[in-house]
Amino acid sequence: MSTIDLPGFADPVAGAQGCFRAVLDAMARPGRIYEAGVGLTPPPPLAPATAAVLLTLVDHDTPLWLDPDAAASREWIAFHCGAPLATGPETCAFALALSLPDLAALPAGSHEAPERSATMILQIRAFEGGRRFRLEGPGMREPTVLAIDGLAAEFSGAWQRNRARFPLGVDIILCTGTQLAALPRSVTVRET
User: Fold this and answer.
1) Which secondary-structure segment (H or E) carries 74?
2) pLDDT in tens, 15-51
3) Cβ distance 97 to 123 under 8 Å?
4) How far apart are alpha carbons 130 and 148 in whole angstroms?
5) Is 127 a domain residue?
């Protein structure tokens, strides 16, 4: 069976709208976990939430850099999203990663157009049982603690360098199972 035989959203409009709302809420409220991708059966190694974010945000106008470890899902992504594959992380609008790539290699935008930065969709193992991070910044009345299992040991340093470039930098959407959370570049993240 080809991976393109695996369906996308059962109701594309409602599915994309629901996921888009979850991503917007996650960006506005860093550290909160939202549901996405319930009912999706994407090809391995994609989690349903990862697939939902791809189906919602990635299209023919947004070059996607695909982590080599996610190559088995290439055909499904091409069929359902129509996104051109970027030749390298430096030319993408979105990056799909199964492990932390070099954030500095992704487009960070410019002072004239900070919105032209890349958004990384990073698939993790879980939002429990992993390292704990304290998040502070816009959209948060008080600091929030988020447990993330599956982040590389160098994540804290990489995020500090990314945050130091603000208003430039990369935003991250973390996905696992049918859950997502976001780390906008404006948020300070410290391991606790």
Assistant:
1) helix 74-81
2) 999 999 999 999 999 999 999 999 999 999 999 999 9
3) yes
4) 5
5) yes
Percentage of the residues of the chain whose pLDDT score is greater than 70? 97
Condensed to tens digits (0 to 9), the pLDDT of residues 39-83 reads 999 999 999 999 999 999 999 999 999 999 999 999 999 999 999
Q: What is the DSSP letter of 78?
A: H
| Distance separating alpha carbons of residues 137 and 130, to the nearest angstrom | 22
Handedness of CA 122, 81, 60, 11 (dihedral sign): negative
The CATH number covering residue 69 comes to 3.40.50.11310
Number of domains in the chain: 1
Is residue 3 in a domain?
no
Sheet harboring 179-183: ordered strands across? Answer: 34-35, 179-183, 171-176, 119-123, 94-97, 64-66
Do β-strands 179-183 and 119-123 pair in parallel, antiparallel, or remain unpaired?
A: unpaired
pLDDT of 2 higher than 80: no
Question: CA-to-CA distance for 4 and 154, rounded, in angstroms?
Answer: 35
d(CA 11, CA 27): 24
What is the domain range of residue 123? Answer: 8-191
